[in-house]
Amino acid sequence: IPVAIAIGGGFGALVALWSDATGGGEALVTRLLGGSEAMAPLLALLVARTALFMVSYAAGTPGGMFAPQLAFGALLGLLFAGAVEVVAPGLIAAPGMFAVAGMAALLAATVRAPLTGVALITEMTGNYALVPMTLLAGAIAAPVAAALRAEPIYDLLLARTLRLSGEGMPRR
Predict the structure, then answer these.
(1) How many angstroms separate the first and last alpha carbons of the chain?
(2) Which H or E run includes 109?
(3) Cα gap 5→65, rounded to integer Å
(4) Can you tell me the mean pLDDT for 7-23?
(5) In this predicted model, which residue has the larger pLDDT, 78 or 33?
(6) 3-state secondary structure (DSSP) of residue 38
(7) DSSP of 39-78, one letter per residue?
């Protein structure tokens, strides 16, 4: 319990000081879809959110996974668009599209549900014109994650829960 209290207190302080680094990230994702963020703050947010996610996950403290994954994906997509812009100025017309592609790709890779991701992201953005791009991002990311033998995140969580409860992982 003291670990949970320390983590909760630390997260509480961050909510007050830098709310974009904490929470589900719904407001952050909505803002990022505009695609007008500077690279340095995006990178700082990605590092902070990654570190905080790992601390929360490792400590076993409760926290959501789905919305933070979307925020990670949007940050990664915009950072990629920014890197392309550095290499080829003027090539990226709409960086926000890369935020959407990043969300779809990360969701497809970590959850292995690319079609569900496309449906959820389309509902979230309300933009059906982005469906082909999100399908392509998911169609690339899911097999790449499988080829790298990365386990789907919810399978890992189930195995962890069963291990902690003393039960075995069900066979597929």
Answers:
(1) 35
(2) helix 95-111
(3) 20
(4) 83
(5) 78
(6) coil
(7) HHHHHHHHHHHHHHHHHHHHHT----SHHHHHHHHHHHHH
